[in-house]
Amino acid sequence: MSYQKNAEAQGIVFEKQTPGYLNLCIRSGNQLITSGHVSDLKGKLGADVSVEDGYKAARNCVEKILKSVWNAHGNLDGLKVIKVLGCVNSTQDFTDQHLVINGASDLLHVIFGKEGDGYHARSALGFAQLPTGVAVEVEAIFEIVG
């Protein structure tokens, strides 16, 4: 099955986006670089948001990223996930940012394969605050390989 069909099988619906203030996904050479995409969920991990809900929020970010990549590139086939940066709005003593950002990585593994094109480098960082109080923000870099 193609990566595009894998994403659609996960319930992701692809529609044309209206350009906004910033470019959500820009092509540079053979790379697609996304802006940070924020979760619909607001709150702070370690206070009022559980790891499970943070995991879902990170997944939500990747769904939005894939829609932006689709808008820039036309489909998801022929892409390789290179790098993911996950930012978690968390209390000072919260140390499970990596478990939250697994929500992003796991969805990319399902769509692009855990080995091969979905096997990516990643950083998961805690932040004192994220824009508008969102729980998670994720950005990614893809390589166009096909």
What does this protein look like?
By secondary structure, this protein is of the alpha+beta class. It has a single domain (3-13, 24-144), classed as 2-Layer Sandwich (60s Ribosomal Protein L30, Chain: A), CATH 3.30.1330.40. It contains three helices and six strands, in the order H-E-E-E-H-E-H-E-E. Strand 1 and strand 2 form a beta hairpin. Helix 2 packs across helix 3 (97-112). The longest helix is centred in the middle third of the chain and has 23 residues, at 51-73. The chain starts with a helix and ends with a strand.
List keywords for this structure.
six-stranded mixed beta sheet; alpha+beta; 60s Ribosomal Protein L30, Chain: A; 6 strands; globular; 146 residues
